[in-house]
Automatic annotation (TrEMBL):
Pfam name, any one: DMRL_synthase
Organism of this sequence: Azospirillum argentinense
Keyword terms: Riboflavin biosynthesis, Transferase
The name this protein goes by in its record: 6,7-dimethyl-8-ribityllumazine synthase
PANTHER family, A to Z: 6,7-DIMETHYL-8-RIBITYLLUMAZINE SYNTHASE, 6,7-DIMETHYL-8-RIBITYLLUMAZINE SYNTHASE DMRL SYNTHASE LUMAZINE SYNTHASE
Positions contributing to 5-amino-6-(D-ribitylamino)uracil binding: 14, 45-47, 76-78, 109
Catalytic center residues: 84 (proton donor)
Any one of the GO CC terms: cytosol
Length: 154
C-alpha cells in the first residue's frame, strides 16, 4: 500500500478572512484523501515561494528525508491603485512555477488574483468555487503523477 502524502500548506495572511476560507477548503480536500498536512503562515503572497524553498532545504532530523510530498500555496491579491498588484501576482506565480520545474515539486497554486473582495469571496468560498480545495486537489494529483513516473516525493 502506498504511504499517504504529507503536504505543507503555506497561507499568506494579508487578507486573513479570505485565507481562512481557502485553508478550510484545502484541509477538507486533503483530509478527504486521507493525507496529512502542516500549516505555515507567511505575511503575503510574495513570501509563499520562499517558505516552500525553506521547507525543501530542510530535512527531517530523525529520518534524513524531505519533510513534505507536496505544497499548497494559498493567498489573495486584490488589485489596488498601483502596479504593485501586477508585481505580486506575477512574481508569486513565477516563484511557484520556478520551484515546481527546478525541483520537480508537486505544488498547488491557490493564490487568488482578483479585482475586488467580492471576486475573492466567490473564489475562496467552499460553497462556491472553492479554490483552496482545488489547489489541494491539484497538488495531490501531481504527487500521484510523480509516483507514476517513479519520482518519489520524499
Amino acid at each position: 500500500m502506498t504511504e499517504k502524502p504529507h503536504l505543507m500548506i503555506v497561507e499568506a495572511r494579508f487578507y486573513e478572512d479570505i485565507a481562512d476560507e481557502l485553508v478550510k477548503g484545502a484541509i477538507a480536500e486533503i483530509e478527504k484523501e486521507g493525507a496529512t498536512y502542516q500549516r505555515v503562515s507567511v505575511p503575503g503572497c510574495l513570501e509563499i515561494p520562499a517558505a516552500i524553498l525553506y521547507a525543501l532545504r530542510s530535512m527531517d532530523f530523525f529520518t534524513a528525508r524531505k519533510r513534505f510530498d507536496g505544497y499548497v500555496g494559498l493567498g489573495c491579491v486584490i488589485r489596488g491603485e498601483t502596479t504593485h498588484y501586477d508585481i505580486v501576482c506575477n512574481e508569486s506565480a513565477r516563484g511557484l512555477q520556478d520551484l515546481a520545474l527546478r525541483y520537480a515539486l508537486a505544488i498547488g497554486n491557490g493564490v487568488l488574483t482578483v479585482e475586488n473582495r467580492e471576486q475573492a469571496w466567490a473564489r475562496a468560498s467552499v460553497t462556491a468555487k472553492n479554490k483552496g480545495g482545488f489547489a489541494a486537489r491539484a497538488c495531490l494529483d501531481m504527487i500521484e503523477l510523480k509516483r507514476q513516473f517513479r519520482l518519489y516525493p520524499r
